[in-house]
Amino acid sequence: MLLHGLALSESDGDLETCCRAASVITHILKDNSQCKEKVLQIELEAPMPSLGAPELLLHRIVRYLAVASSMKNKDGKPGYSYVQPIILKLLITWLADCPNAVQCFLDSRPHLTYLLELVSSTSSTVCVRGLAAVLLGECVIYNKSSENGKDGFTIADAISQKIGLTSYFLKFDEMQRSFIFSSVKPAQSHKPLTRSTTASMAEIEDKLLGRNATLAEDLARTGHSHPELMAGSGSDRVQVETLRRDLQEASQRVEMLKAEKAKIESEALMYQNLAGKLESDLKSLSDAYNSLEQTNIHLEKEAKTLKSGGTSTSPDIEAIKAEAREEAQKESEAELNDLLVCLGQEQSKVEKLSARLSELGEDVDKLLEGIGDDMALPEDEDEED
């Protein structure tokens, strides 16, 4: 009958019936792991055969939660505000200390997205936001999955990105300070102490002592054999995950800087080789110019010899010599101008590259050390004309 109440349609009256059934099932599932596992396997038929495979009861309850949050009264205000807290309490009780229920809840990706939006929604009540935050915390603490995208670290990372850790923890404080939360904790009157209540209390105390002893033995055995596997609190796990993400980002940044440095060093080597080639070309041009000068001197000597011999071809020789000198001078000047332009462009590139290497902490003088020492231009060879 209770399951039938949960499996009704999404109309107003059926939602109220579902709410009452959820309240009863919450008390049944509390501290009952075996019952949680059994209810987790319940599948409901789809409302229409065309909708496909049967739907799990847990997923149907989450869908009712979303429907209840979207319903509004005639005046535009949210309706059935009491439905959401009751369904959230059922989910919190169900997922508590039940990793399989947490895994089932996270199997549908929209569930996590909706829960994050519900926690950060300004239209929800303080109680709804606080209970949704508790449910999110259970998805981290009781999460035993190692599947990528569904493990506890991924959920904690989603909380940090979508809500913010400070804002997330404030939801608990706001709920505890709310009137609704404080009004449900009145001072309870103590029952009279009788023989039956004394025996019941002694039995409960024995169970607690036995459970604590078992937990202490397990903790001592686990801590002695694998001390590195001891689990921290939820906040410690979130902090560790944040530090791990920061370290990963820093490592990526270092790798990017290393790649950029290697690229700049490669460009520096290329420009260094280019500068050496230009210096070699300049030396070749200087040698050619010197050769032209020697040819010019030789022609002048021949001209003087012919002139002293009194030949009639002296004017022609002088004209040829002048023309050859003029052509050689024009060719040399053009090549020198082109070379100076190239050297100016390369000098600008070398200065920019030197500035970039200095920013990266490289010793530019050490990189350029020894360049051009063995390619010095010959001095005082072109002073004579």
CATH class call of the largest domain: Mainly Alpha
Number of domains: 2
What share of residues is helical? over 70%
Calculate the mean pLDDT score and round it: 76
Order of strands in the sheet with the most strands? 1-2
Structural class, from secondary structure content? mainly alpha
Straight-line N-to-C gap: 118 Å
CATH topology of the largest domain: Leucine-rich Repeat Variant
Number of helices: 15
List its salient traits.
Vesicle_P115; about 70% helix; rod-shaped; two-stranded antiparallel ribbon; ARM-like; about 375 residues; coiled coil; Golgin candidate 6; 2 domains; disordered C terminus
Notes on the structure:
It is a single chain. By secondary structure, the protein is mainly alpha-helical. The chain folds into 2 domains: 2-182, Leucine-rich Repeat Variant, CATH 1.25.10; 253-375. Helix content is 72%, strand content 1%. It is built from 15 helices and 2 strands. The protein has a two-stranded antiparallel sheet with strand order 1-2. Helix 2 (12-29) runs parallel beside helix 5 (83-95), helix 5 runs parallel beside helix 8 and helix 7 (109-120) packs parallel to helix 9. Pfam families: Uso1_p115_C, Uso1_p115_head. Its main location: Golgi. It is found in: Golgi apparatus.
